[in-house]
Amino acid sequence: MSVVDRRAQELDTIAAVLPIERRDELAELLTDQDIETLRHLVNEGMGANTLRALTSDLAYLQAWCRLATGSPLPWPAPVSLLLKFVAHHLWDPVKRQDDPTHGMPPEVESSLRSQGLLKAAGPHAPSTVRRRLTSWSILTRWRGLAGFFSEPALKSALRMAVRATGRPRQRKSKAAVTGDVLARLLASCAGSGLAEIRDRAILLTAFASGGRRRSELANLRVEDLVDEEPVRADPQDAASPVLPCLAIRLGRTKTTVAEDNAQSLIIGRPVTALKQWLGEAKITSGPVFRPIDQWGNVDHRPLTPQSINLILKSRCAKAGLDPVKFSAHGLRSGYLTEAANRGIPLQEAMQQSQHKSVAQAASYYNEQDRKRGEAARLIV
Q1: Which pTM value belongs to this model?
Q2: Is the per-residue pLDDT at 304 higher than 90?
Q3: Is 255 exposed, middle or buried (0-12, 13-18, 19+ CB in 10 A)?
Q4: Ranges of each domain in the chain
Q5: Domain spanning 179-372: CATH 3.40.30.10
């Protein structure tokens, strides 16, 4: 048995959390030590989405390093190699017009493209470079090594390279799914079919629970739903209607671990929509949101995060909105934008959305304050 075949078999043992359609490609790119590290991460309970991202980044880094230096990734990587990575991926397009050797060498670029690993036409997005450096740092630490990712030289080079690319930071969704947009999406699934009932429940649950990420919706299970005591529509009015209330246990997310016992509440219409879906689909345990085949049969497997994104884009098209402008993350940014529009305190909104970064969450509030302010209205 060849080394590559043996690695492929070893990858099969952790296939449940890896992009197994890339098994043979990964077996070519990764080293024995890489695969052992990945198996260790699986055993330690690292989240599936995080592990897939780490694996993809590791495969790219190994391929790039072999082409750029003729050797596999060294552990830990020296500062010179980290600086080379930044120089190869963040470069000045204007300077390259005069100097073809500026940035990634043509032979390295060509080979990465032929392997399908490099798709960007120009320099990488700064967020992609930062993510891959973070993955590199995480994998270094998991090997029990101290890396050089905090070196001033690397931070300075990264800062100057980002400035040179001239690329503004792009949001994950070009447009936010605010209240008015959500209303149009819900109108597109006003029918009584299973798909309409499911999609309505997805949209309302995702938005009302604080803008849940698509991976969190895909991973949501019936066992994570806890009925709470009904609440008043207006907490200050004892005569206001009583509404159903449901707690969603989030478990492990991008910003929380299971031990945090993080949860979000949904009240009223989202609870009704979610329970209608579970009742119509006869789901009593396991994944909440599932595929529906062409004959109306509900699968036992959960929807994938990508499917959640495609459902939102499909609803955008049906509602007469441009699907290119929206993604599932628009529900998350839309929740905070709508909360800002309605004057909900930032801390209260963050408790529901489970944002950890005040600066990130506050950016949506600041943007709305600027639009309501006078500074941009000196000449109208």
Answers
A1: 0.60
A2: no
A3: middle
A4: 3-165, 179-372
A5: no
